[in-house]
Write a structure and sequence with these properties.
The chain has helices at 2-16, 24-28, 34-39, 60-65, 69-78, 99-108, 146-154, 173-180, 187-204, 219-222, 224-233, 300-312, 331-347, and strands at 41-45, 113-119, 160-166, 208-212, 242-243, 275-280, 315-321, 368-373, 376-381, 389-392, 405-408, 417-420, 423-427, 440-445. The chain is an alpha/beta fold. Helix 6 packs across helix 7 and helix 6 packs parallel to helix 13. The longest helix has 18 residues, at 187-204. The protein is globular.
Length: 449
Amino acid sequence: MAVLFLLTLSVVLSQVAADYDPTWDSLDARPLPEWFDKAKIGIFIHWGVFSVPSFGSEWFWFRWNEGRADHVEFMEKNYPPNFTYQDFAKEFTAEFYEPSEWADLFVKAGAQYVVLTTKHHEGYTLWPSKYSYSWNSNDVGPHRDLVGELADAIRKTDIHFGLYHSLFEWFHPVYAEDRANNWTTTTFVDSKIIPEMKELINTYQPEVLWSDGDGEAPDTYWKSTEFLAWLYNESPVKDIIVTNDRWGTGTPCTHGGFFSCNDRYNPGVLLPHKWENAMTIDKVSWGYRRNAVISDVLTTHELLVTLTQTISCGGNILINVGPTKEGTIVPVFQERLLDLGSWLSVNGEAIYESTPWTTQNDTLSSSVWYTAKNSSVYAVVLDRPADNLLSLGSANSLFENSDTTVGLLGGNDQLSWELNGDQVDIVFPDKSTVASNWAWVLKISPADK
């Protein structure tokens, strides 16, 4: 009887431990690890051989190959006739790459997680993958494990470490064969992609796996559900890993851990499913561009507008920078991240671990967006009100009791307010007396009824 009891108990315990089937119904039922929603702010890093020409975008090879005029002209003017894209790899030197300096910058920026591009659509891996022979950062270029070095540096901080991985590769011949077979063969997936992703997971144990490059083929070709079942059931990060929704045609904004939907996704409304806005400081490109001009770069205010709208509507924001081929993050990107960190050092209370409020955008002052935490509501004021008087149309219910208090984060005094019919008017302090330079956060604490 004792043996039977132990066997029965073993079966029950195995059922309590989540066991996910390779179906979307089962996989989509997996709870999102709670750290991700609390974190709110991540840094995306697009780095690879495309950082060498640093012209156009990270899609340089593809655009050049398809004959785009400006890319062809760029190559004809600057490189010999027989120069190939592979020749760029030896110039991907990373001689100034100091992962500890990157990690320090990301800490100062207030980031809670980092996602590094380990392999973009060009197929070049930033780690010594045995599935990318002679086309990786150890064999050609810097002769370093760029992924591993950053993982070590980030894990000396409190930041969560994540990895981006592209499923498809533009010009891989085996992938081209599978495409020509209308995805009825899966040689590329079986021999390269699945083993490559498992190698990444087992070697570096990331807390985010950000999939991309799925859009040409269905998830059945990529064997996405089978891989995710392994990831959630057996992998060394099965309990903490977070994944997105780019696992095959039809999966974005439909299946996966959090929804990334499309690049720079910012719906402006509250969504029922956790989502992320992956966006760029360079408005044009994810990879570094030498010919970028200052108008191509988001201002600090524009960055804070995007962050505020995203967090208010229940999303996370993943802010992309593209390092140079030498391994530096250029000063203008550093400045934006440091400005962000400075703002968060004053106003992060309204961002980290917050939840959406009942209203996201104020009905009267469109530059005001709301978040909530515990019993307080935060009004993020993106544009300073004229004559230091802010009128809100969505917050009346918070001021039904005259003991409700309003404070400005970074300030010491309580602000005076007056309920006037369908709006509440709040008196702002003079700008010279407050800590924030670009946006201001009111903490509204309703009195107990």
